[in-house]
Amino acid sequence: MNQESRTLIFVYGTLKRGFCRSQFLENQIFLTKATTAPHYTMYDCGEYPGLVVDVPEGIGIQGELWSVDESGVQLLDEVEGVAENWFSRDTIELISPSDDQIVQAYYFQGDVTHLKKNGSNWTKQS
Prior knowledge:
- This is Gamma-glutamylcyclotransferase family protein.
- It comes from Gimesia aquarii.
- The protein has about 130 residues and is mainly beta.
- It has one helix at about 70-80; strands at about 5-10, 30-35, 40-45, 50-55, 60-70, 85-90, 105-110, 115.
- It is built from one helix and eight strands; from the N terminus they run E-E-E-E-E-H-E-E-E.
- The chain is globular and about 40 Å long.
């Protein structure tokens, strides 16, 4: 039996279940709700959030943990504009019980200087 490679992805905004981009995860496996370690800040970019590393002032961000196949990761990279440098995909630190796994998330690459901090949970369903 050929086991396809899968990547654990933490989503925190429009990709969450019930939100406007959730269809891009419809063929993937939802695992659980999850929270990051308190090393991140989420900004309100208008219709979507942007997550950045912020170790000194960060908070725990609430989201979902998904198991995503290779074609799903490629699709998410397109949706998140990785090639255009809108977002980058890199590892993220979660708290227990998901803290023993290697998980990736999409980080905002834009200027956050004039953006409002969003808090720990994205709730806009645009």
